[in-house]
Specification:
The complex is a heterodimer.
Chain A (H helix, E strand, L loop, with lengths): L1 H31 E5 L4 E3 L8 E5 H26 L14 H10 L5 E3 L5 H7 L4 H10 L30 H14 L6 E6 L6 H12 L4 E7 L2 E2 L2 E2 H4 L14 E5 L3 H19 L2 E6 L18 H10 L2 H11 L5 H23 L21 E3 L6 E3 L12
Parallel strand pairs in A: 4-5, 5-6, 6-10, 9-10
Antiparallel strand pairs in A: 1-3, 2-9, 7-8, 11-12
Chain B lengths: L3 H16 L12 E4 H15 L3 E5 L15 H5 L4 E3 L4 H13 L3 E5 L10 H9 L1 H4 L9 E5 L15 H5 L5 E3 L4 H13 L4 E5 L7 E4 L1 H4 L11 E4 L4 E5 L2 H14 L5 E5 L2 E3 L3 H11 L2 E4 L8 H10 L12 E3 L10 H6 L4 H11 L4
The chains are: A alpha/beta, B alpha/beta.
Protein name (chain B): Pyruvate dehydrogenase E1 component subunit beta
Main location (chain B): mitochondrion
Subcellular location (chain B): Mitochondrion
Chain lengths: 401, 361
Amino acid sequence: MLRLYFLINAQKILQIKKCLKSFNHAKTRYTTEAKFQTKPYRLHRLDKGPEPETTLTKSDALKYFELMSTVRKLEANINILYKAKIIRGFCHLYSGQEAVAVGMYAALRPSDAAITSYRCHAWIYLYSKEDPLVAVIAELVGTRAGCSRGKGGSMHMYAPNFYGGNGIVGAQVPLGVGVALAFKYTQKDAVSVVLYGDGAANNGQVFEAFNIAKLWNLPCIFVCENNQYGMGTSTARHSANTEFYTRGDVIPGIWIDGMDILSVREATRFSINHCVSGKGPILLEVYTYRYFGHSLSDPGTSYRTHDEIQKMRHTNDPIKNFSNQLLTANLVTQDELHQIEAKVKKEVDDATERAKIGKEIEMEELTYDIYANDVMKEIRLTTPFRTGPHKVTVNRSQNLK
Amino acid sequence: MATVKNTSNLLSLVGKSLNRRSFSVSKVAAAKQMTVRDALNSALDEEMSRDERVFIIGEEVAQYDGAYKVTRGLWKKYGDKRVIDTPITEMGFTGIAVGAAMAGLRPVCEYMTFNFAMQAIDQIVNSAAKTFYMSAGLVNVPVVFRGPNGAAAGVAAQHSQCYGAWYAHVPGLKVISPYNSEDCKGLLKAAIRDPDPVVFLENELLYGVQYPMSDQALANDFILPIGKAKIERPGKHITIVAHSKAVETSLQAANELSSKGIEAEVINLRSLRPLDMNTINASVAKTNHLISVEQGWPTAGMGAEILARIMESETFFHLDQPAVRVTGVDVPMPYTKSLEAAALPAPKDVLEAAKKLLKVK
């Protein structure tokens, strides 16, 4: 009898031990990573789409939050500099679209290239290697610490594997397909991410690029950042077919809620797989929104209502929604997020101050870097009486040899 | 007067030289003739063989052997990867060529004629030409845009425009307008090796013309410098400067002038950008008279640029007479045969200008 009693108790003890073990195990897993549902995708010519569920680690969560917050703060500071007339010319801000750039970047590999339009600040920040915040802000201010030494400006910023920053609507799309061609030609394990807006989605050369990318089976991820307006013209007023993810015709497409960073990340993973497994190009339409006008000379309220903008900010903000997701899942604490916000504010404000006081390049550089060699040693200035020297800024050219 | 015996002696001498394989010494041994088409073809072949990154992209370049047969045989030799047929989408495939160049390849982008490149001119100017400057030297664009330029025969207005002045206008481009086979071979090779975007303006009517090729020119490392003109025919009484087909016109005029005792110095520009003013200036300092000859339209053309630069330089003071331009007529190209001929400068026009300047009847 006693032996039976002990046996039953031993079993119970074992059970309790097991329970405790799994409870502890679950508790550890629960705080360092969590599963999230992605937002529903819409598919074009695809039987299977990206995963409906994704796992996010705590460190990645904090990293993405920091990156998105940095982009948001960067653009906010740039807005202030522009209003103070320290930044001139065109300036197209990305505020509201952070989840697209950061979500894609989260999935891209170092070998993958990207090219986009003039709404490029977030992308150049992500791709720049050295002191990226100053590289961007100084370029906008027009001083020598800028990634193009101040000679390019807002729309012409480059970094390794990042081909701009392009001023002509739609021109970047064939260029990006050319990068993909180079990857296939050299058998590089890399994809070319080719971004364009809903405003560019009807441009002829975009379709020329689609055709060739599909025909030659090139590793391109086309990304239509549909922020609902091509400059001041809403999608309904500029496109007979607003299903931009289908406009690649025989190219498979996916519609993604671009305000949800994890949906973007998951779709990017899916697309990279699609390309590197030799299936050719794919077209992603990311639904997103820009808070500012088309550029900083556009208040952005003559073609849309103030209410609409406010509603998006309050109910659909990518950073706010992401942090809510993280807090609800107990993946991060409010404190941790506040700490990051404080850190980001300091970093971006610091960089802004440093970028503001930078110097312009010397006048001599006016005639530098027209050519990659000294075929023309002297460049005519404004009169026939004076020339400027032509020089190549050394240690920068990528394709010289 | 060569007798049969002398000729056979000569031939046996040549034969012996050939046998002794003294090519480099005996220039007597047959100066080989080569068509412009073949010169271009061998330039492409040699450069593709030398550098894996070089590839050709354009309409009909592969299986058709090239609309004008310039790329004949290359697809057979190098295959689909390196000689690529495109759909009829100039803007698209030009952008693709430029993007591939940015990413490190060396594309040769063919236009069936440069008239069609107007579809793509934004990619040539805004994406290719300006990028090195806008990136402050970070991204260079080693792409060649080549194809026939200017008037052909009977192809009428939309297929006959000369784009030399348009492309020469743009900082960031190098623009070449070759004349004969040697020009074409040496300059196309130089263009392909060049780290910058090069616009290479050929001439359809010259494709089939044979020109002598020196041993040096036949070698596979034969490169000509971009931006250097060539004195095609030395002279002392008047300088005639031209590019492409107009060089032929000028040489013909120079021959006729010679029979009147006027020795014209004919300069073959070879490049439009950079423009070799040093050669022109030195020549005008010697001859004191200048005519610029071009097939393109007069307004804001290459001749206008050359004359403006002469005006602005010390060379102006060497002129005994104002410099003049002989150009195409300021009209879209007509189809009517006689009108088409009249719309382009002929040797008689150059003669007329020379005689007027030199005050000769």
